[in-house]
Specification:
Oligomer: single chain
Strand content: 25-35%
CATH class of the largest domain: Alpha Beta
Number of helices: 5
Largest sheet: 10 strands, mixed
Number of strands: 10
Helix content: 10-25%
Radius of gyration: 19 Å
CATH topology of the largest domain: Alpha-Beta Plaits
CATH superfamily of the largest domain: Pseudouridine synthase I, catalytic domain, C-terminal subdomain
Structural class: alpha+beta
Distance between the termini: 11 Å
Amino acid sequence: MKLLIKIAYDGTDYCGWQFQPNVRTVQAQVTAAAKKIFGFDCDVTGCSRTDSGVHAKGFHATVTQKGKDNIECSIPLEKLPKAFNAHLPDDIAVLGARYVSDEFHARYSVVSKKYIYKMHIGCERSPFDRHGALHITSKFVEDYLDRMNDAAAHFVGTHDFTSFMAQGSKIEDATRTVLNASVTVSPNDPDILLFEVEADGFLYNMVRIMVGTLLEVAEGKLSTDGIDGIIAAKDRKKAGRTVPPHGLYLECVNYPDNI
């Protein structure tokens, strides 16, 4: 059996999830913690490759003995999160653990992922959101929330999202299925907007480009029905700007019920 752990992390001080030489990554921290717990080298495989500065609330990763498809562990399952957290920095936490089959893959077994992008639209910036939300200084048109939601509805469905993929990306098949996309006001703060999007997969910078495009709709620079034309163009230059990573959160990952 493989060990599947649920992880939350503040990505501010990390160059993303994935291992990179000579920089600090979340994967490196979790892998080091696993070795301390189990006493042998481990392979830690993540569900996604979050970028530098991006956060996660429901990231998942499998842990196996290095070079094997399983792991042997004498520690009770319910005690493993606490064992991991004793060896992790304060900005990373393991929230839960369970066993899955040897055939399970943290990334390729995913049914869908949900991201949330957080925007602060107050007149003045908030020191508490400096690492967790994009401060919007531009002026919006009067009905901006309705306009953003009308535009976001055009993302839903199966499309070639080349226009919403970072230039230079080597991915050849940019077709993804977006299950839902919407913009809401946070129930906890009227100055916070939340863009929520769920899909079967995402391209490099896809969510951040979606948000940048929706902001241009809110600013009156793009029409709500212009999204269809941007998608059809398959041209990154047609979509809006790429917003910074610090407002982006991997909210949850969904797997088949029978794992």
